[in-house]
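Today's session is about reading a structure prediction critically. Students often jump straight to the picture, but the first step is always the sequence itself: look for stretches that repeat, for charged clusters, for runs of hydrophobic residues. Only then move on to the predicted structure, which in these notes is written as discrete structure tokens rather than atom positions. Here is the chain we will use throughout the hour.
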Amino acid sequence: MIRPHPAVWRFVHGLMVLYLGFLVFLAFQTVYDARQFMKHLSPDLGVEPNERNYAEDCRIYMPEKDNKFHGILSTILDPFVLAHSLGWFGRALIYRDYAMLWTMSILFELSELTFKHMLPNFAECWWDSWVLDVLLCNNLGIILGMQAVKYFATKKYNWRGMSATPGVYDKAKRALFQFTPASFERYMWGLTSSPRRFIYCAVLILFDLAFALNSFFLKYELWIEPPSCYLNSARLVLLFAMAVPSVRDYHEFLDRDDEAGLEKLGSFAWLSSGILFAETLVCYKFGRGLFPKPAPPIVFWAWTLSGIALGIYWIVWYFQDKWAQAKPKVKSM
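Below is the predicted structure for this chain, in token form.
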């Protein structure tokens, strides 16, 4: 990573180390002490926020109200609607693959249904989850992000240095271009290309899903109320900054058979894994006793049966792939 400057990515690496140390510090606190400590970072914290439930009235048409479509309009005007699109725009710049992005989008909505008995924010109406979120906001962010990926991938780049650029205007333009990538390629993840590749991609999808869920569990358990508090936004900015090199490391590791591939997983990817583990550990520790309501049986059985079905399908796929690879060798003999 050389743009905008290697020092920038070293600074991001340093912030990741500091954040990991902060998470380790939180892991040794009680939930009460952690909430009180957060007041040193933002004086408004330390008070339990009011979590909005988006599924209180799921009617599309409300004849008793002056605004007959009050439910839909109040949801559309929620600040998190724009955050949805911006978040998936950023994910598109990171993962650069439609299949991966759509899989993540659908799985996150299923995760909201899974944990809505624990987090009030996850309780949404059907049209909010599948129409407003998946089909409109998420899809809009994904499409615009992939168009940006296409633009950067086909853009003509000029690698001349600042001193070799003539004129003040061209020098200023070259200085601004320093903050754009030196090169930009679209990642070919091959989610369904082979059983082995499917497992690798599934690990990356689960990592992204865990980071997204940790955002909601951390703010609920530590009483961090966005958008008034900057801490949640600062964490998301850090996650985006560290995801860019981490995903690149992982992609190059998967393509290690090529000349440009990495023989070992890069340091950014390992550090991101440590941060995810620490965040999940903090969420688990602070969440004990905080969610007394058990998961509905349909949630348990839906994920159990889906996991069994997917496992059986993958095993059949794996042996079919092995048989297909061995068949040409048998014929050649």
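Discussion point for the tutorial: Residues 297-332 form the longest helix (36 residues).
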